[in-house]
């Protein structure tokens, strides 16, 4: 199942009790680390 960046930020914010702006920083860093991009509303790895 693939999620949008917004949905991932919401889930991390809820699960870890982070403010959305902190969850966004976490997601941005993770996407950079895993070379992921958002395509058609879904986060996918550029390496796949």
Short characterization:
The protein has 48 residues and is of the alpha+beta class. The chain contains two helices and two strands. It has helices spanning 5-16, 20-33; strands spanning 36-39, 42-45.
Report on this model:
The protein has one domain (5-41). The protein is built from two helices and two strands; from the N terminus they run H-H-E-E. A hairpin with a 2-residue loop joins strand 1 (36-39) and strand 2. It is an alpha+beta fold and 48 residues long. Strands 1-2 form a two-stranded antiparallel ribbon.
Q: Give the rounded overall mean pLDDT.
A: 91
The description of the largest β-sheet is: 2 strands, antiparallel
Q: Multimeric state of these chains?
A: single chain
Total strands: 2
* Uncertain stretches of 5 or more adjacent residues: none
Structural class: alpha+beta
Rounded radius of gyration (Å): 11 Å
Shape: globular
Element-level helix/strand string: HHEE
Question: In percent, how much strand structure appears in the residues?
Answer: 15-25%
Distance between the termini: 15 Å
Binned, the helix content reads 40-55%
Give the strand order of the largest sheet, numbering strands 1, 2, ... along the chain: 1-2
Number of helices: 2
């Amino acid at each position: 199942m693939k999620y949008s960046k917004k949905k991932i930020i919401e889930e991390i914010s809820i699960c870890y009790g982070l403010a959305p702006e902190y969850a966004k920083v976490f997601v941005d860093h993770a996407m950079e680390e895993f070379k992921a991009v958002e395509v058609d509303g879904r986060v996918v790895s550029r390496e796949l």
